[in-house]
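hey all, quick one before standup. I had two proteins in the batch that finished overnight and I want to keep them in one place so we stop losing track of which output belongs to which input. First protein below, input sequence then structure tokens straight from the run.
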Amino acid sequence: MNDSCLIITTGGTIDKVYFDAKSTFSVGDPQIGEVFRQAHVSLAYEILPLMRKDSLEMTDEDRTLIRGAILKADNRQILVTHGTDTMTDTGKFLAGIPDKTIVLTGALIPARFRENDAIFNIGFALAAAQTLSAGVYIAMNGCIYDPERVLKDREANRFVEVSPEPVEGQD
């Protein structure tokens, strides 16, 4: 196994760019390399820019591409930057990949903005990928979540843990 961390970028808010003329956002170049450079990250890592999509546009074909890249990689530690709206869907899609620690993270504010959560989330997710046991996790705003037990509360603009559905016949 490769000791470096594989960073797969898929787009999402972390990489968004604001266009004044259109008053809209568009997914730009991956920002994680610049974030690591500014933070003087000394950990060995590789960046694989897989796509530039808003997660609302992500399909199961895109998730299959992400899963394939993870399965093909000889890295044990995987960090996936992803849009927050469908991050839990992708996390569930990646379940069952053996012997790898896969951490998905995103942002509610683009990394290019002066005040953002992207830089913190990236650093937090990188630490999580190095310390958690094999499995799939979502790392957002200082919390680690199981993709099966979390959802994005769009009204509150944060992730919240949800209880598992009760099994029939149990109290």
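OK second protein, same deal, sequence then tokens:
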Amino acid sequence: MGGQPSIHGDVYSFGVLLLEMFTGKRPSNELFGGNFTLQIYTKLALPENVLDIADKSLLSGLRVGFPLEVCLKLVLELGLRCCEEFPMNRLTVREVVKQLYTIKGRFFKARRIVRR
């Protein structure tokens, strides 16, 4: 917001990208305006209504037993943590990568269990 560029801005942008990818909504969507943003839209849906805001293309073709709701919740929460208003409250890039690997690990662990 008019300050010096920093990695905190990159983390913010990555958080918005995560929210866009998993909700299928852009921050410029007609749904959003004034104080109602993509971040608030996401916060209001978590944790109980995560499937209601998920991009419908994510919901098709998944195996029975895949913990989609849990994974979506984790990814969207990560996106929100990247989008914290104050840069010093945002995750570091290192923390984001660590969280993504953790989520990925849970996903593949769940897939191995379902296949057995």
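Flagging for whoever picks this up: The chain has one domain: 7-115. The mean pLDDT is 85.
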